[in-house]
Amino acid sequence: YLQRLDFGNDGLATRLHVFRSDHRAPIEVVMDPEKRFGEPLLPSGYTALAIWDAFRAEGDPERTAALYGIPRAEVEAACQFATDHL
């Protein structure tokens, strides 16, 4: 797992790459202890679980992406992350 960590100048881990989607241009979900207490984040800055919940409420990845102003690939990555890891 140490291969999936980024380290700061002080030698401490700063970010963990927890998930990579299976898209042609993969979306990474990362955990950064300085952002939202280390909650898994998408590149847009939304939490993966918030987008997963929104998708479940909306039922359509295209609509969810439009409502949040993010690419559909991020919605799909959030769904993959939630179903693979929860």
Which geometry do the CA atoms define?
A: elongated
Q: Give start-end ranges of low-pLDDT stretches.
A: none
Instruction: Estimate the helix proportion, in percent.
Output: 25-40%
Cα Rg: 13 Å
| Total count of strands | 3
Count helical runs. 3
Q: In terms of quaternary structure, what is this?
A: single chain
Main sheet overview = 3 strands, antiparallel
Span between termini: 19 Å
Mean pLDDT over the residues: 90
Task: State the secondary-structure class.
Answer: alpha+beta
Percent strand equals 15-25%
Strand order of the largest sheet: 1-2-3
Provide the succession of SSEs.
EEEHHH
SSE diagram, text form:
Blueprint (H helix, E strand, L loop, with lengths): L4 E3 L5 E8 L7 E4 L16 H11 L2 H8 L3 H14 L1
Antiparallel strand pairs: 1-2, 2-3
Helix pairs in contact: 1-2, 1-3, 2-3
